[in-house]
Design brief:
Blueprint: E1 4-13, E2 16-26, E3 31-35, H1 42-49, H2 52-60, E4 67-75, E5 78-79, H3 85-90, E6 93-96, H4 108-115, H5 122-135, H6 137-141, H7 152-163, E7 170-174, H8 182-197, E8 202-205, H9 209-215, E9 218-223, E10 226-231, H10 233-237, H11 240-247
Parallel strand pairs: 3-8, 3-9, 6-7, 7-8
Antiparallel strand pairs: 1-2, 1-4, 4-5, 9-10
Length: 249
């Protein structure tokens, strides 16, 4: 049984169909890539999986521009598409959203503590802080620095570390390398690879397709809200139409 199983997922914002009949799965200890053109619906898919679309739909229900979410999302065998985001997070499905979004007025250490807000175990929280500092030594050096003054790369490291501050059974990461310099991207992807090596499955949305294909066991290609291909990197790269039309390679 897959750890994460998405079945026939559809998302509509008013009359705009963002996702249509999307199905995918992530097995335990698997690294899965999700790639595709800008505007394909990749971020919406991660938001739907993590409960944010459902939360937004409930907030807008009965107003103009209703949001409709259909299909099923199962995690560890249980259906979660009707649950609030914090309950999904409590179960171990962790989203690290695009554009980093640190608490800008808080220090690095305070941001990490905020990521552990669901935990009641002080010793476990301290171990996770030490683990995050081992993954991202830059954060250890800047633990007392206000997050809003960090560089873009450091803020992404902080966002990823904060996502790991409460027990993660699957880490979903949205566009982590956006706007980062090559050296910082390399450092960041190295840390993500170590997280996976430690046994945490990863679902990665990323524009750097070559990087995703080097890291992932398996990949999905999303275009215009639909999954159009699935497979390992060699099989996808062998499809000339897919390469030219959807992968930009």
């Amino acid at each position: 049984m897959p750890l994460l199983e998405v079945s026939h997922l559809a998302v509509r914002y008013d009359k705009a169909q963002i996702l249509s009949e999307v199905s995918l799965a992530v097995d335990e200890s698997e690294f899965v890539g999700l790639v595709g053109p800008n505007g394909a619906g990749k971020s919406t898919l991660l938001r739907a999986i993590s409960g944010l679309v459902n939360f937004e739909a409930k907030m807008k229900r009965g107003t103009t521009g209703d949001i409709v979410l259909e299909g099923e999302v199962r995690f560890a065998g249980e259906r979660i598409d009707g649950l609030p985001p914090h309950e999904i997070r409590r179960r171990g499905l962790v989203l690290c959203p695009e554009r980093r979004r640190p608490f800008r007025e808080l220090t690095v250490l305070e941001n990490l503590m905020a990521g552990a807000y669901l935990s009641r175990d002080a010793a476990s929280t301290q171990r996770r802080i030490e683990h995050c500092f081992a993954l991202f030594p830059r954060l250890a050096e800047r633990k007392d620095q206000v997050a809003g003054t960090l560089s873009g790369g450091e803020q992404q490291m902080l966002a990823t570390a904060r996502a790991l501050m409460f027990e993660a059974k699957l880490l979903a990461i949205d566009e982590p390398s956006l706007g980062l310099a090559p050296k910082i991207r390399e450092e960041l992807f190295g840390a993500i690879a170590r997280v996976h090596e430690e046994g945490i499955p990863v679902l990665l949305v990323e524009q750097e397709i070559g990087q995703v294909f080097r890291m992932a066991d398996r990949n999905y290609v999303l275009s215009q809200g639909r999954i159009i291909a699935e497979g390992d990197a060699p099989s996808l790269m062998a499809d000339e139409v897919l390469r030219a039309g959807y992968l930009g390679l």
